[in-house]
Write a structure and sequence with these properties.
Length: 198
């Protein structure tokens, strides 16, 4: 089921982009994340979609973006909108990018991966980050696998348990800054902000 994510977002790229809220419920978290990213700093956006609204918000605050998304249609939209930044069509599990980055963001993307793949991505994010750099991502609130529905298609979601994420942070030299389970302000997402140790 996770391997059908690419097909889903490619087929529904324009519908997803049109439906994606521009209200930026994530703003408070993005502002906290940006405290660790200097002006003109470099951010890796995993599962960037078409760049709206998150990439636009970060770009408008003078950060440089490298966005990765599995949908060519999504990446084409991002390139059209923000041509001075770098956009890569690829699977976040396999992409090769040149770091280090001051920040890595994976908003509404890691939870489409199997739990063991999420663990691998946490390890990769730690390697990509500058010392002191920040990682912002969201998950479920407990270890679980759930099949949702979007545009009439089944859509895979999974999560590790909070204790498992914390063990990964400790293993890979990252410090938890903030954790919000079922955050009402962002529609019930469970959100993590962590930083790589200096």
């Amino acid at each position: 089921m996770p391997d059908r994510i690419a097909e889903h977002y490619e087929r529904h790229a324009h519908a997803f982009d049109a439906a994606r809220s521009r209200d930026l419920v994530e703003q408070a978290w993005l502002d906290r994340f940006l405290l660790a990213v200097p002006k003109s700093g470099h951010i890796l956006d995993l599962g960037c979609g078409a760049g709206e609204p998150i990439a636009r918000y970060l770009i408008d605050r003078d950060r440089h973006l490298t966005g990765v998304d599995v949908s060519e249609r999504m990446i084409t939209l991002a390139r059209t909108r923000f041509g001075r930044h770098r956009w890569i069509c690829g699977d976040i599990r396999a992409v090769e990018v040149e770091g280090p980055f001051h920040g890595v963001i994976a908003w509404d993307s890691l939870f489409h991966l199997r739990p063991e793949e999420q663990a691998e991505m946490i390890a990769k994010a730690a390697e990509w980050l500058e010392p002191g750099g920040a990682l912002l991502f969201n998950t479920g609130s407990a270890r679980d696998v759930t099949i949702g529905c979007q545009f009439g298609d089944e859509l895979y979601h999974a999560s590790l348990a909070p204790a498992e994420y914390r063990a990964l942070f400790a293993e890979h030299g990252m410090i938890e800054v903030a954790f919000a389970p079922d955050d009402h302000a962002t529609g019930g997402r469970t959100i993590w902000l962590v930083r790589r140790q200096q």
